[in-house]
Amino acid sequence: MANQNSLEKLKQLIVAPKNPTKDCPELFSHQNFNDNFAGVNLESVDLSLSDLDDINLSGAILKNAYLLCANLKRTNFSNANLTNANLSGAIMWFANLCNANLSGSDLRGSSLRGANLRGAKLKGANLWRSDLTNGEFNEANFVDANLNRANLKNANLTGANLSYVQLNDASLEEVNLTGANLSYAQLNDVNLKDSNLEGANLSSVNLVGGKLTRANLKGANLKGANLENANLCDANLNYAKLKGVNLNHVNLRGVKINHATELDNKWYLVWDIVNHGAYGRNLRGINVEDADLKGANLGAANLTDANLTNSNFRFANFSDANLTNTKLTNANLADINLIKANLYNSNLYGANLNSSLLFNANMSGALLNEAKLVKSQLCDAELSHAKLVNTNLMNANLKRARFLGADFRESNLEGAELEGTIFGNNLGISEEMKQDLIERGAIFKD
Asked: Residue 28 — very low, low, confident or very high, per pLDDT cuts 50/70/90?
């Protein structure tokens, strides 16, 4: 119930029409102002901090009005004109704003939990960090609105127009966006877990780092979208359009696709490898750079001359794989199985091989400059003529590994196990360093 003092203030602020008979007949002579203020003119009034809980302001004119931090729970604003109104910090739980015009309004930090904004106009509105959980926004117009960091969990946005909207770092978990228009929207780091985007228009949308785990994107249009670093784990992409989409470093594990899903060949291959493995397959010359292939099974696969630059293979299996002349520049190969793999003449510049298993691997002539091999297992590996400039081999197991002709300039061998490790004709190893390595078990064949 509204506070009596607030009601009295509201009555005093009502702007009388110039022609009461024509514009609002008998408004002031017969209208009950206890809680019914339908159609009144409150343009530019200041009702900040007012308690107007559960009153009727349907059809009211509140253009440029100030309602900062006001209590507007259950208030009826249906069909009201709130253009450019300042409602920042207002509490509007379960308010009725059906078909209201809130274009250009300031709703920063406001709470609209369970509010009804069906068909509302919010073009250019500022809803930064607002609470819109469980709200009804069917067919609402949010074009150009600012919803950065807003919370829309479990809201209904069916058929809403969110074109060019800003939803960066917003929470849209379990939201219904069926048939919504999100074209050209900015959704960096948005949370769309378990959301329903069936048939939605996401063309040219920016979804970098988006969380779309278990999202329903059936029949959605994502042409020209940027989903770099997004998580699509277990999402439904049946009938979706993804031609020309940036899927660099996107998690495609468990993603559902069908015959009608439009997907570039590169990303179809990535999806196939992630979900079905590629053990023993001939993948010679493939280009899957910038892919997320974490945990993929590529054991005994032929990847000769492949381009795997900047891809994530953490926890993957490459045992017995042929990676001759393969490009693995800046790839994440930490914690992976490369036992007996052939990496002859491969490019591993800047790669992360920390804690990787490289027992008996052939890395002759490999480029490992700037690579990280901390705690890696290189026991019995062949690295003759490898380039290891500024490579970090700290605490690595190098027992019985061969480094004949390898370049160790500025490399770090601190704490490395060197029992039976063979060196010879190496650049970057001073006489002092040589004696230290010999004391630690190394063998030199200069």
From this structure: very low
- φ, ψ of residue 4 in degrees (nearest 5): -65, -40
Taken in order 29, 34, 38, 39, the sign of the CA dihedral is: positive
What pLDDT, in 10s, does the model give residues 148-164? 999 999 999 999 999 99
CA pair distance 269, 292, nearest whole angstrom: 12
| Token couple for 429 | 């190893």
Q: What CA–CA distance (Å, rounded) separates 94 from 72?
A: 9
Please answer whether residues 290 and 313 qualify as being in contact, where contact means their C-beta atoms are separated by less than 8 angstroms.
Answer: no
Rounded distance between C-alpha atoms, residue 344 and residue 388, angstroms: 14
**DSSP output for 44-111:** T-B-TT-B-TT-B-TT-B-TT-B-TT-B-TT-B-TT-B-TT-B-TT-B-TT-B-TT-B-TT-B-TT-B
Assign 3-class secondary structure to 128-181. Answer: CCCECCCCECCCCECCCCECCCCECCCCECCCCECCCCECCCCECCCCECCCCE
For residue 371, how many C-alpha atoms fall within 13 Å in the half-sphere facing its CB?
30
Whole-model pTM?
0.90
Both tokens of 115, joined, read 């509010």
Contact 194, 214 (CB under 8 A): yes
Judge residue 22's burial from the number of C-beta atoms within 10 Å of its C-beta, 0-12 exposed, 13-18 middle, 19 or more buried.
exposed
How wide is the angle at C-alpha 416 spanned by C-alphas 415 and 417, nearest 5°?
A: 120
Query: What rounded mean pLDDT belongs to the chain?
Result: 95
Q: Are 362 and 383 in contact (CB under 8 A)?
A: no
Residue with the two structure tokens 């704003």: 97
Contacting residues for 404 by C-beta, under 8 A, at least 6 apart: 384, 385, 422, 423, 424, 425, 445
CA-CA distance, 394 to 417, in Å (whole number)? 9
Q: Write the CB contacts of 18 (distance below 8 Å, at least 6 apart in sequence).
A: none
Q: Buried (b) or exposed (e) across 310-327, using 16+ Cβ within 10 A?
A: bbbbbebbbbbbbbbbbb
* Residue 18: predicted pLDDT: 46
CA 113 to each of CA 77, 127, 137, 238: distance values in angstroms, whole numbers, following the listed order: 15, 13, 12, 33
Q: Which long-range contacts (CB under 8 A, 24 or more apart) does 251-259 make?
A: 251/292, 251/294, 252/292, 253/294, 253/295
Question: Strand, helix or coil at 272?
Answer: helix
